Amino acid sequence: MESERKFDFNSNGLSSKRKSWMDWGYSSICTNCDFFYDMKDFLVRWLDNVVCEQRSNGEILDYTPAPKDFYKSLEFTGSLSSAGWGDAIVMVPWELYKKYNDQSILKRYYKAMIKWHNFSKKSAQGEKTGHKKYIWDTKFHYGDWMFPSFMIGKEASGAMSTSEATKDLVATAFLANTSYLLAKISNILGKDSSIFYDYFEKVKEAFQIEFMNGKGELTKHFQGCYVLALAFNLVDDKERVSKKLGEMIENNDYCLDTGFLSVPYLLDTLCDNGYQNLAMELFFQRKCPSWLYEIDNGATTIWESWAAIQPSGKVTKNSFNHYAFGCVGDWIVRRIGGLQLKEPGYKEFYVRPLKQERIERYQLKYETLFGQIEIEKTVEFLKVVVPKNTRAYVDYNGMKKELSTGTYLFTLEFTL
């Protein structure tokens, strides 16, 4: 939150960027800051700018507003857009709909979503046939940008190498995910959703042919690739693939190795696949790279690189105020605090705190359209306040309760 407060416009870096990159919209701001602030009008205004800048072929530019010298970026990457960045035109309205239960937001940007999806499909296909036409490997993408194993130490190969190592798999994963989201959005708006579901299945099949070796492993052995494959439902044997991800983290000294596009899904993916303890281990990790490593090294805002100050003491040129990795705040609210959406607008919500012993007491308050939700937990009790005209579903340590409006206090069993 301190990172966001340092800006008076939608930007994500004070050093080299000072521009509103599209990954800004989803990776942290929409999912994280929009919980702490009412950012609906702010984000809608920004999305209007994104649509204004959208090219006639449907391409969404890497950042919006785009200054006059934007097209010089062709000299850098050879491209004006990237998977995961442009997909914010679908992902941000979807997140706003879930929070505010406002279908008009989906209607407002539906045409722009379709145009981006059509551009993505055409770009992926190129001159290819068979399953290859669903693999988006025809242009530049940032991929799982700046994952730490390529950014730290004497052998570090730099940010562009993180793109080269992951871009084709990551772009294809986001092509699949956006197709799936468009199917859900189309269904909500009463439009034909089958074409998007069908396309998702084709991309999923192509993904498995191209990027899986038949042994429950990906052909690209990076944590972020495994995270996205699991988070976007692109693998059938989730147990096997998640086990491999867990082993990769353990073999990396219980440290993460995820970049801009995969880190928002990392801890949730572990929790959803039976690795809650490993997720907590990563969250409380103090070695580099980790969130607490930054704090231990004096950070008051989120860094652009996991090792902006490297373990050797070397200070890099990366920004020290760049909130992409601040997306963990969203996970804290939903998994540790336990507040999870069931119906748009929090008309119905879950209270599902992780069973953990490291944080003994916390209190969470959130203002919804219906009033304030409150969750307070200690080792002795769980308190839940349910606003008027809403319903809560408590699920904690074997206790399941359905709650209507009111204040509830549950005594918890605990051991010293």
Topology (elements, then pairings):
Layout: H1 2-5, H2 22-36, H3 40-53, H4 74-77, H5 88-100, H6 103-125, H7 159-188, H8 194-211, H9 223-231, H10 238-251, H11 263-272, H12 276-283, H13 291-296, H14 328-336, E1 339-341, E2 348-351, E3 362-368, E4 371-377, E5 381-386, E6 391-396, E7 399-403, E8 406-411
Helix pairs in contact: 2-5, 2-14, 3-5, 5-6, 6-7, 7-8, 9-10, 9-11, 11-12
Structure report:
By secondary structure, this protein is an alpha+beta fold. It folds into two domains: 22-336, Glycosyltransferase (Alpha/alpha barrel), CATH 1.50.10; 348-411, Maltose phosphorylase, domain 3 (Sandwich), CATH 2.60.420.10. The chain is built from 14 helices and eight strands. The protein has helices at 2-5, 22-36, 40-53, 74-77, 88-100, 103-125, 159-188, 194-211, 223-231, 238-251, 263-272, 276-283, 291-296, 328-336; strands at residues 339-341, 348-351, 362-368, 371-377, 381-386, 391-396, 399-403, 406-411. The strands form two sheets. It has a four-stranded mixed β-sheet with strand order 1-2-6-7. Strand 3 and strand 4 form a beta hairpin. The mean pLDDT is 91.
Radius of gyration: 21 Å
Portion of residues in helices?
Answer: 40-55%
Kindly identify the CATH topology of the largest domain: Glycosyltransferase
Shape: globular
SSE order:
HHHHHHHHHHHHHHEEEEEEEE
Low-confidence stretches: none
How does the major sheet shape up? 4 strands, mixed
Query: Which structural class do the helices and strands define?
Result: alpha+beta
- Classified by CATH, the class of the largest domain is Mainly Alpha
Specify the CATH architecture of the largest domain: Alpha/alpha barrel
What's the rounded overall pLDDT mean? 91
Provide the domain count.
2
Strand tally: 8
Distance N terminus to C terminus? 34 Å
Strand content: 5-15%
Strands of the widest sheet, in order across it, are 1-2-6-7
Oligomer: single chain
Number of helices: 14
GO molecular function: alpha-L-rhamnosidase activity
Protein name: alpha-L-rhamnosidase
Organism: Enterococcus avium (Streptococcus avium)
Keywords: Hydrolase
